[in-house]
């Protein structure tokens, strides 16, 4: 019995939140004049109905999972990294640059491009971490601001020096990557690419890392109680730089696999309008920063988006119904922080800790 | 250079800074009571949309603004309830509010007006543009103040009033005390929660005005995501201005000027990316020098910041 409640209790709140989110969606559908059951059926079909749609959802989830994992890792260490967008953009941009200009066999260039993406995202993120550790510049704000700098800088590069002038389209985008550099598809003819495997592997690795390794324990300690971690000899500065590099690197990887696996070029604004970064952060919040949970939540949120597209194709209801469900869901899940907050307060009274 | 700098530039800077200033003052109110309001962007977007909806249905600018204030107040109340009563993480609630506002406005645009992307209606009346009789003819000031909406003047008035409230009234001191040290404030009988609610609701009203200036001020239309990050710029102005009314006004002036300058660059076919980048870079640099201690402590109390 005890074990049973231990497993179901943490699940109770997300499920309640999902139900409330779907209820809010139902109200929105009703207002838009659609049939609720039919719309939800279309949403299900758009996300999971048939092999193509299912793999499309997983392919959309791929960058979201990686970004979500990066955010989750930083949250676990107690750092509010909101810079996923900039880190992803720099990852994507460097992957595109390496893919375009590095000579050599395709597979080598592809691997180099992925590594470049990880390093670019990581370094961009470490910069904010360094500012915080060394100069006490608030991390939350600096990561948020660096997003704009990154997006505008990448936008400048593809609008002027690196602009694709071969086609007739006047869009700000880089040239197309060569066929040989593309990440292979998992099933031919379907949108799903190898990046998804990387994302699942990353989730498993982070799960094991956090649960079973010394570093993972230190990270969780730092996030759970910074004073205790300090007392236990965890050095906050180096930990912060490491955690931020890891977190930003994952976001960069997300951007890189999106470029190499499905877009094949850097298009100005394509990553921002798809809202991968904020969706990834929301997935991490939804799952309470648990790596496997983040994986599942990312697929769920991606399904809401692809399902919304299905709804728009086949009914009168606009696709933003997915966005509404998602936002209401996060609002209600945020009440979970209450629960853990109350628990901690109670705990403090009995253990007599200072903070 | 002469093409770049003239009096009309200051005039357009005043126009573009108004929404930023209004929202940033709202952000300052919130951050003074220890609630870091990331939801400014969403509030502003909702305000812009509600103002257009109100204008469409009531055919009157004044009612349109009242309608926008009412709608955004409801949302800011939800924000306040979740973050104050339920102790939810303010940042998370703010992010969710932004997402909700973006989804809701686009959805309603389809559901109410049955259009996608943008809504425009010839019969809609925008905010009046004032040309004050005597001032109009004064050489330098005349062109600077030409054709500004009442909200431009109102935003500066509100900044002044806020300064007076903060530093010259008893109630304002209590407000600041409630943010500075909630526990101590509570112990002398200040109702901290009441001030927090007041701050969030007031920021909702200010954001509604900011949104109305966006959708009914220069142009009379609503486009999807028309705030385009102005809420975040306002947040940055709050930070840069140390959450004080005068500092926030100065920061907003700077950002408004940068914005006007990049519009000018666009006209000259120069890359605007770097001028657009400038507000963010300036703010990051400024954060090296001014460290908003009180904010960091507030963030610490919320247990949500990086430290």
Topology, pairings included?
The complex is a heterodimer of chains A (355) and B (307).
Chain A: H1 2-32, H2 36-48, H3 51-76, H4 84-101, H5 106-135, H6 139-159, H7 195-212, H8 214-224, H9 226-231, H10 236-263, H11 270-273, H12 276-286, H13 291-314, H14 321-333, H15 336-351
Helix pairs in contact in A: 1-14, 2-3, 2-13, 3-7, 3-10, 3-12, 3-13, 4-5, 4-6, 4-10, 5-6, 5-10, 7-8, 7-13, 12-13, 13-14
Chain B: H1 7-32, H2 40-58, H3 61-85, H4 90-113, E1 118-120, H5 141-144, H6 150-168, H7 170-180, H8 182-187, H9 192-218, E2 221-223, H10 230-240, H11 245-267, H12 273-289, H13 293-302
Antiparallel strand pairs in B: 1-2
Report on this model:
The complex is a heterodimer of chains A (355) and B (307). Chain A is 76% helix and 0% strand. Chain A is mainly α and 355 residues long. Chain A has one domain (14-351): ABC transporter involved in vitamin B12 uptake, BtuC (Orthogonal Bundle). Chain B is mostly helical. The radius of gyration of chain B is 19 Å and the shape is globular. Chain B has a two-stranded antiparallel sheet. The termini of chain B are far apart. Chain B has a domain at 21-226. The longest helix of chain B is centred in the C-terminal third of the chain and has 27 residues, at 192-218.
């Amino acid at each position: 019995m005890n074990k049973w409640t231990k497993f179901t209790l943490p699940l109770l709140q997300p499920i309640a939140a999902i139900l409330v989110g779907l209820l809010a969606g139902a109200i929105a559908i009703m207002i838009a004049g659609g049939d609720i059951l039919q719309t939800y059926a279309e949403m299900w079909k758009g996300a999971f109905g048939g092999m193509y749609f299912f793999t499309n959802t997983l392919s959309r989830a791929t960058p979201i999972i990686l970004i979500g994992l990066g955010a989750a890792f930083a949250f676990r260490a107690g750092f509010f990294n909101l810079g996923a967008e900039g880190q992803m953009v720099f990852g994507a941009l460097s992957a595109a640059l390496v893919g375009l200009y590095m000579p050599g066999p395709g597979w080598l260039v592809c691997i180099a491009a992925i590594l470049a993406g990880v390093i670019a995202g990581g370094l961009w993120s470490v910069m904010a971490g360094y500012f915080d550790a060394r100069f006490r510049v608030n991390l939350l704000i600096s990561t948020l601001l660096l997003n704009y700098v990154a997006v505008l800088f990448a936008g400048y590069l593809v609008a002027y020096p690196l602009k694709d002038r071969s086609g007739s389209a006047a869009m700000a985008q880089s040239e197309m990557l060569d066929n040989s550099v593309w990440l292979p598809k998992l099933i031919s003819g379907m949108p799903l690419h190898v990046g998804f495997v990387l994302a699942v592997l990353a989730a498993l690795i982070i799960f094991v890392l956090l649960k079973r390794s010394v570093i993972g324990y230190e990270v969780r300690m730092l996030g759970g109680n910074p004073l205790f971690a300090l007392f236990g000899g965890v050095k906050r500065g180096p930990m912060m730089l490491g955690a931020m590099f890891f977190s930003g690197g994952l976001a960069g990887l997300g951007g890189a696999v999106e470029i190499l696996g499905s877009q094949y070029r850097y298009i100005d604004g394509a990553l921002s309008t798809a809202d991968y970064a904020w969706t990834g952060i929301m997935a991490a919040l939804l799952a309470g920063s648990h790596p496997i949970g983040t994986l599942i939540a990312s697929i769920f949120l991606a399904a809401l988006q692809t399902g919304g597209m299905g709804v728009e194709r086949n009914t009168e209801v606009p696709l933003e119904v997915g966005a509404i469900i998602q936002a209401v869901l996060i609002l209600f899940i945020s009440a979970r922080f209450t629960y853990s907050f109350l628990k901690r307060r109670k705990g403090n009274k009995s253990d007599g800790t200072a903070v | 250079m002469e093409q770049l700098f003239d009096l009309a530039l200051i005039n357009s800077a005043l126009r573009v800074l108004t929404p930023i200033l209004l929202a940033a003052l709202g952000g300052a109110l919130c951050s003074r009571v220890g609630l870091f309001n990331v939801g400014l962007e969403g509030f502003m977007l909702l305000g812009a949309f509600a103002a257009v909806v109100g204008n469409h249905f009531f055919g009157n600018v004044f009612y349109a603004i009242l309608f926008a204030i009412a709608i955004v107040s409801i949302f800011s109340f939800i924000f306040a309830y979740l973050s104050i009563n339920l102790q939810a993480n303010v940042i998370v609630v703010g992010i969710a509010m932004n997402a909700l506002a973006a989804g809701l406005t686009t959805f309603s645009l389809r559901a109410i007006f049955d259009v996608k992307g943008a809504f425009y209606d010839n019969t809609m009346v925008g905010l009046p543009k004032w040309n004050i009789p005597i001032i109009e003819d004064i050489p330098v000031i005349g062109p600077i103040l030409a054709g500004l909406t009442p909200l431009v003047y109102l935003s500066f008035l509100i900044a002044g009033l806020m300064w007076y409230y903060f530093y010259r009234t008893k109630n304002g001191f209590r407000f600041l005390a409630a943010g500075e040290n909630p526990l101590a404030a509570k112990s002398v009988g200040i109702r901290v929660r009441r001030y927090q609610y007041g701050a969030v609701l007031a920021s909702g009203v200010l954001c509604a005005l900011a949104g109305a200036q966006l959708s009914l001020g220069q142009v009379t239309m609503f486009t999807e995501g028309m705030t385009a990050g102005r809420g975040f710029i306002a947040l940055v102005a709050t930070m840069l201005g140390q959450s004080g009314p005068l500092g926030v006004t100065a920061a907003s002036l700077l950002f408004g000027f940068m914005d006007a300058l990049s519009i000018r660059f666009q006209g000259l076919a120069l890359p605007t990316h770097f001028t657009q980048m400038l507000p963010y870079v300036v703010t990051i640099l400024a954060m090296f020098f001014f460290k908003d201690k009180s904010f960091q402590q507030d963030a610490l109390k919320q247990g949500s910041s990086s430290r």
